[in-house]
Amino acid sequence: MSNPFEEAYARSINDPEGFWADAAEGITWTKKWDKVLDDSKAPFYRWFAGGELNTCYNCLDRHVEAGRGDQAALIYDSPVTGGTQKTYTYAELTDEVARVAGALKAEGVEKGDRVVIYMPMVPEAAIAMLACARLGAIHSVVFGGFASNELAVRIDDAKPKLVMSATCGIEVNRVLDYIPLLDKAIALAKHKPDACMILARPESEGTITNVKHVDWASASAGAAPAACVPVESSHPLYILYTSGTTGQPKGVVRDNGGHAVALKWSMKNIYDIDPGDVFWAASDVGWVVGHSYIVYAPLMQGATTVLYEGKPVGTPDAGAFWRVIADHKVKALFTAPTAFRAIKKEDPKGELLKNYDISTFKYLYLAGERTDPDTLKWAEDMLKVPVVDHWWQTETGWPIASNCMGLHVYPVKPGSPTKPVPGWNVQVLHEETHEPVPTGQIGAICVKLPMPPSSLLTLWNADQRYIDAYLEEYPGYYKTADAGMFDEDGYISIMARTDDIINVAGHRLSTGGMEEVLSSHPDVAECAVIGVEDQMKGQLPLGFLVLKSGVTKEADEVVAEIVALVRQQIGPVAAFKQATVVQRLPKTRSGKILRGTMQAIADNKEWKMPATIDDPAILDEITEALEGVGYGTARKD
After folding, report:
1. Is the domain defined by 504-634 classed in CATH 3.30.300.30?
2. Chain Cα centroid distance, residue 390
């Protein structure tokens, strides 16, 4: 009996050009490509070389031209603003995007210019992205509410012609004013945008003072609608900065052509979403999930996408997700496991689920962090639908491994995102020999080059850094910086990070970046940050501080200042709330801090005394310090 998944996967590896040429027929091109894969400048591979298209046209105009303008394109659902709901048809969304693109054009934005988008979860965030794509401008979305200095670093790297923002974002119990944050960021940045186009929300007022302030509503109302500008397949669609860095950020560059082809293909083959189906990615446009699966992929497929301004719990209760599914007849939900852990904590027996008719609901997709077996089983028991754990990264733009529900449904194995998706030649390599490791053994997960369409082209203005960060360590491969293994059935498991990135509620954050902030405190001589296991968020950062001699402050006072500093420098997304003062840090004889050993002690895991440790007695002191803040043998969970 044939297996469509196995057939698709085999063809994608053995005949990638034929496979992706067929997939590319699902996209409208203004000029067909000359070559499916251009490898002449490897490792800078380019898909659909010579082709021209417009991403916004593929998301909007072509559906209107095909007679489906009256179908719902985007549903906005906002419990934090008192239950606001608004539906845009494809025709309405096309008109709105064309007008906002016209307003950008009136401000001098054209093909190749960068636009930074610093927005809350409102329809205008998606409209801003699509308006940039319409003009061939390159957008860079920064998570709304990000700290001013982090925003300034991104402004300096992308050098935007214009910033699009709003007067505020709305949290569960507070209004977060964006104008002071944005004004400060522009003051800090060496590069100054020409203007800021600001969406006025009724919950907050404000005017940008450091550059020209453009009122969103009046500018778009008075603008002539802009036409779609065809761009080369390899022309950048967007730059997305990987989160949590306090030094020079890594700006992932996504192309127009390969991105459109892979995302359109993924909607049916991975997510089993057809035109007209309702798809909901409960994420934020600040993250890659929001780019790929709130905005671009559902609209390319002609589906209806839900844009939700709220939380899984607290807006108003742990039944919020069930209410959205019932109200909008959602077929599939994509969210992070941490959302379901929060729902499970508030409503362990699923009592609130009984209040809603979710009969339209067919699939739950989880990503952003490893799905723990307890959460997987709870979701399966409550929802009685397939729960699909899948794995990918900001850099890849779409899933590397998944149970592809539109091709073939495999039995779920808790802890595994099933098999590599067609297009992804995933191999587990020995970290020293670079040879494939035997089945069942852990190694470095790498992807054989060239990677499939929609993978990052490079890093913005940093080609050598792209090579150094991703390609150099394993020649011929992209290094995912994840470690894991294949089992005898070809299922892959992602076990751990191989670098200093921790995963807090689906957000990849750099412990190295946090250490930079900690070490900037005048009382801190030395520090380390590790990720400790947390039932709700997957991991939480925990800091270790060695104070300078002569510091007379109480340890608690220094810790409180450190926590506030991280919040100011990186933002609340870091979830940095705990640190402990120690006399010294465990190190190897060469001076490397033994973070892995500290993490094992904190998580109450088995560990061996490192052969290269300088002074074994330090680990007793670390154990005692960890117990003092509730970790190690003091853990209750």
Report:
1. yes
2. 13
Q: Which helix (H) or strand (E) holds 215?
A: strand 212-215
Class of the CATH domain delimited by 4-310+390-448: alpha beta
Integer Cα distance of 103 and 119 in angstroms: 17
pLDDT at residue 246, rounded to an integer: 38
Rounded Cα–Cα distance for residues 341 and 277 (Å):
27
Rg of the chain over Cα atoms, rounded to whole angstroms, equals: 24
Closest alpha carbon to 251 in 148, 141, 164: 141
Q: How confident is the model at residue 225 (pLDDT cuts 50, 70, 90)?
A: very high
Number of neighbours of residue 32 by Cβ within 10 angstroms: 13
* Euclidean distance between CA atoms 202 and 105, whole angstroms: 26
Domain map (residue ranges) of the chain: 4-310+390-448, 504-634
Share of the chain above pLDDT 90, in %: 73
| Identity at 496, one-letter amino acid code | A
Please name the residue ranges forming H helices in 108-230. 123-135, 148-158, 179-188, 216-221
CA 238 → CA 158, 421, 588, distances in Å?
10, 24, 42
Look at residue 497 in the predicted model and tell me its pLDDT.
Answer: 67
| Integer Cα distance of 601 and 194 in angstroms | 52
457 or 593: whose pLDDT is higher? 457
